Amino acid sequence: MSVRILVSDPLPEGAVAILRGTPGITVEERRGLSEPELLPLVADIDAWVVRGATKVTRRLIEAAPKLRWVARAGAGIDNIDAAAARERGILVLNVPGANAVAVAELVFGLLLALFRQIPAADASLKRGEWAKARFQGRELRGKTIGILGLGKIGRAVAQRARAFEMRCVGHDPLLSEEATRALGVEPLPMKELLPRSEILTLHVPLSPETRGMIGAGEIARLPRGAVIVNAARGGLVDEAAVLEALERGHLSGAVFDVFAQEPPGGSPLVQRENVVATPHIGAATQEAQEAVGEEIVTLLLGKLRESGAIGESGPRTATPSRNPAHKKISR
Prior knowledge:
Pfam families: 2-Hacid_dh (PF00389), 2-Hacid_dh_C (PF02826). Belongs to the D-isomer specific 2-hydroxyacid dehydrogenase family. The chain contains 13 helices and 12 strands. By secondary structure, it is of the alpha/beta class. The chain has a 7-stranded parallel sheet, with helices on both faces. The chain has a 5-stranded parallel sheet with strand order 2-1-3-4-5, with helices on both faces. The two termini are about 40 Å apart.
């Protein structure tokens, strides 16, 4: 009997082709559907591939009696009711770090935009102005960057920070001091990292333990004039506390790619001149999406083979990737 896989968010054509080219699998692509629209579709599926748009709710999980695997093409799984999945014995798969280069590059793109006032300078020039004297900026060189989370993305950030001749301090409870120092990062506990961090960047998953991990108290411990970067998950940072610290000058700026509520609507934080923000585009590069797509379907097929749901024969149409973004960055 064929294994039925629902793909309810956009995946690269190559990733879908790998699934379709695998004997014993039937793939249905249905994108942009609401929960009521998804309910009849999940009744007979064995596996489900999503990105961030589809919400895999408890109601949908309960309506899918055959569902055994949910594969998230990306890192965060906050759009999946993981508790409901666990109760059913459903395996939730994800590929943290497949988009590491894309996110790390965006971090520095946002920082350079903030430090050199690039958005404002560009808008000024487009208005026909030549306000050169108005746009005196700052350099990244010599600044101390505090990195919370030294998984694949945090490591990619540290690597690029060193290229900018920045000092790197970091905190990751899952990494030994020796391993942290091998990355060119000085290991510090949180209470010591915050006062050292002229730039604080977060690269941790969103969980009950990390939600709101940077609030008013943590911001107060940063040096005056510090900058906060959140290109990880919305909800890690108390955005109201950031706004208050910007208004009183304790923070000199902030950059956000993710928000507790997306889209953030008319958030006063986004409107500030000393905030550079983007609409959750950290992983939105062609290279990253190809890497994420290929890695998640490869992982899913491996689990299907391990379970005996499909045979050992490989995909009929898969070809090795030549994408440099697919190179593994070891944790």
